[in-house]
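If I may wish for something, please sit down with the protein I am sending here and say whether tokens and residues agree:
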Amino acid sequence: MPTIGLNFGHDGGAALAQPRGLHVIEGERQVGLRHVCGGNARFAGEIGDWVNRLHALARGPVTAVAVADWYTPACRILPDGLVELVSEDITWSRPGDALATSVLRPVKSVDWPLADGPAGPLPVVAVRHHFAHAALAHYTSGAAKALTLVLDGTGNYAECGMVCLGDGPSLTPVLSFNNRTGPRFGLVYEALARRVHGGQFDTGKLLGLAATGATDPDLLPVLRTMLAGERARRTAPDLLAPLGGRAPAGSALRYEDTWYPYDEDAGGYLDGLLADATDDDVVHSYGGVFPDEIRTPRGHRHLVGHSPGDPVCRTLAATLQTAVEEDLAHLVTGLHERWPGYPALSYAGGCALNITANTRISESGLFTRVSIPTCCDDSGIALGAALAAAAPEDRPAAGGSRPGAELAYCGPRLTARDPLRTGRTRLTLASDTALVDHVAALLAGRKCVAWLGGGMETGPRALGHRSLLVSPHWTGARRHVSQTIKRREWFRPVAPLCPAEVADAYFTGPLDHTDTMLFAVRVREELAEQLAEVRHIDGTARLQTVHAAEHPLLHRLCHALAGRTGLPILINTSANGGGRPILNDLGDALELLDTTALDAVVLADERAVIT
């Protein structure tokens, strides 16, 4: 029977899990504010309507409401039992050896309106934040047996990750990571993103910037020590590689006017000082601020700037990315060796959006497949909570040729609040072939179109349902769509979209993992000039491959474009203006058409083109 899940933290929302039909409502796309949380007034005012919509979509009576346990302090719409659990129950906040019994727990919810079902109050279950991530990753992967890894940024109070063993319907937590000992992959990444780009959610920008710099071997051990101190590394050397002779003795970090030298006894810079600090202090110290200056073991001093144009910031971005990849590869290898009977890896949490690190894992040969849900960040927490609390028979079945395909597009369908504006024309084509030919002609003529249709994508990537498309056959196409229309920074990559059956003619890498733009591939060197508009600075590309059975119109459009330009490839980026969520209303699309250099809006389901 159906289960509703709710997330009141950042990227909050509501979701429905049932045997045939997942549904995700992401709050940011309803209220128009990126990364919105339960403390937002509009979120609080509208979530009841979202829950009612999910009841209407349920194929039977909803049996429970699952609530993720992490929430922002400003939130005032929580069940009393959840607040008591988080603030008063030490076995929940610091489970220790009781982790397996501290991931799901019924909580009281007297007179809580969001638990009101058509037939009366529903039971409410609290779900541990990282267990919700794990449940999403495992139960949508299609794998019958998988090692499940969660790595987050700020995470959930002291916790920043989790390892679970997925055996069919069973998901057993076996290991918890915390920000005191690490690995602090996401936390340090967030700190540098704040420093360079201004916000903790700008980690994607930092990943793009990393390609513009070069790894500094002298800075590398400093940043690896920030990710996990040497004491923690010596305690679990199979998971956290000890630096040994590469430990950064003689180095130091400066915050404002105070230098913090490397402490050999504590094995880090702040580790000893924070031993008795609160969890909030630990998170703020590692994730809230980045050092103002770094002195390396060789005595070189690096003054850290505040912009992507700063050479030190570029070097730090590149070096931090290398540090994360090296330590992540060691961690995953160690987990595989601890639990060798799990052929597949299911991976979620904010760190799972790091596509170059994901490719390193997939190409390691440790696993038959690495599965990452499209909403691997906190936008998937509501659905993960629902899946964690649902009965086994109410979750997606294991197997299938393309697991995760349903999840990718289980958001709401396009709405249409506003009528067609004066001065715009709507052309309705007679057939799919006519639509494809018409749009291919626009793209070959150096036009940019918004391609809208079907259920909205879940997670931060546009995958052909809410996309801006342009052909890469002409010089300046990337700049036109990314910088002119969307006002994005010059160093941020765009994503090529290509039919799966011809992708290997243009790209190399894990092409069997490229359905959802979560793995980096490499542009073939001999085609670097021809594919310059989709090739990132480091030669990689965030590829999405499409199949005729799942994306018939987009698949045909790529081949029709090839007939005109010689390239069956599209530049694909999300349909939204700068700093705004991906759009899901025709009125917002028409506003983009009116106020930017966008040339047309294509309503694929209606075979209509608005210009």
User: Anything to note?
Assistant: The chain is about 30% helix and 20% strand. The longest strand covers residues 145-156. The mean pLDDT is 95.
